[in-house]
Each structure stands twice: as C-alpha cells, then as structure tokens.
Design goal:
The protein has helices at 12-25, 41-44. The chain is an all-alpha fold and 46 residues long. The protein starts with 11 loop residues before the first helix and ends with a helix.
C-alpha cells in the first residue's frame, strides 16, 4: 500500500491515530499528515 486517506465528518483523528499505531506495531513505517482545512492561503487569496 502506497497511501491511505481518511475522510469524514467526525472521528478522523481518533481512527487515524489508532490505525497508525496498529501499522507501526506491525513493523511498517507510518507518516501522518494533517492538511489545513481551508487549503493554501496563496491559492485562495483575493
């Protein structure tokens, strides 16, 4: 698996944290990234 994205309305951080811990304990290298909710200011400036 090269990547995984978790999307939804609520509970994402809880699920993602548990999933990272689960995968790390099985010997996989895990990186978590939290994107800014509103994107880049440079892209959305008026």
């Amino acid at each position: 698996m090269n990547g995984l994205m978790i999307q939804g309305d609520s509970g994402k951080s809880f699920i993602a944290t548990g999933l990272c811990r689960f995968l790390t304990r099985r010997g996989l290298r895990v990186r978590a990234v939290r994107l800014h909710a509103y994107g880049s200011r440079r892209l959305h400036s008026s």
